[in-house]
Design brief:
64% of the residues lie in helices and 0% in strands. It starts with 17 loop residues before the first helix and ends with a helix.
Length: 70
Amino acid sequence: MKAIIFPGQGCQREGMGKDLYDNFPKARDYFEYANQLLNRRISDVMFFGNELELLETDVSQLKMKLIIRG
């Protein structure tokens, strides 16, 4: 059994969303679409960023939206 739990503000961690990206094609498409729109690999920051990068407001809001939507 798998469960998807939606995160809240302050729960950022390296690798967040990677499982969604790797296992759900529609989620992967959504992440890639966001990367294109932002002209930035926000998914790379989410999957491989350090703690300081993950806490930046401009990144944290985008991450939460991607995880919830993905």
